[in-house]
Amino acid sequence: MNKALALAAFSLREILSAPAYRALIASTLFIAAGAMAISNLFLLENIKVQLDLLWLGMSLLTTFYVLVIAGSLLAQDFTQGIASLFLPHMSRSTYLRARVFGIIAGLLLLLAVMTLVATATLAWGLNYTPTAQAHGVSWWAPLMLSGMTLLQSLTILSIVIFTCSWASGLVEMMLFSGVFTGLAFLLPSVMQTMTSTEVMAEVPDWTAALIHAVDYLFPDMTGARIALAIAHGLPLPPAELTWFLIAQMGYIMLLAAAGFLLFSRRDL
Known about the structure:
Blueprint: H1 2-16, H2 19-39, H3 46-79, H4 83-86, H5 92-127, H6 141-166, H7 170-194, H8 197-200, H9 205-217, H10 223-231, H11 238-264
Helix pairs in contact: 1-5, 2-3, 2-5, 3-5, 3-6, 3-7, 5-6, 5-11, 6-7, 6-10, 6-11
């Protein structure tokens, strides 16, 4: 356990010292300022537009962090023999788990900074917005957006772990991780159209089964709709939110477990 904690702390220090990570931390201020400036163009919905832009900024920052910073960290471990320096002193599962804990710690720090900046931005906006225009907007909206961002970031991280556990090179790892993540964001809207009653009635049974199989292979990355519905005070069935959370957590655990299993048998 001490070795795992030491490696996790080392991983976090390695991430904190990366110029790209420092640039992400600094960009939180620019995102907040941009959200405030652009939202002022919408006279009646400026606070809600501001939340939309803050959610977009959170998603972009964390996606870049997981794909580029975390992905390159794992890739260099597997392709440049860095993992071999630690494996004589701990098992492969312990090593990978410690690395992932360090990556998640960096992700939590990034989200904490973004949440504080977003909360301060929201507080400033609420002070200058009529009560009628801010209807449904609450102080905990940035925290809710941060929570949904964390969930989707962990989903992307599970994709990165799975991809890096079997891919052979840095380019291959980054390419497949990016493609899988892009499909995870794009497929929900496409599948919603393809699985409609009208479409299913026109296709053969085997085609319908294939469409559903493809739909099950990728996670449902529609957290933006759920998070913003709650943040804006819009009605959201509790059953829908519960099912989304269960499905996301299940996908994260299954894909991460598959990645750990493949890594334990990988030839380094």
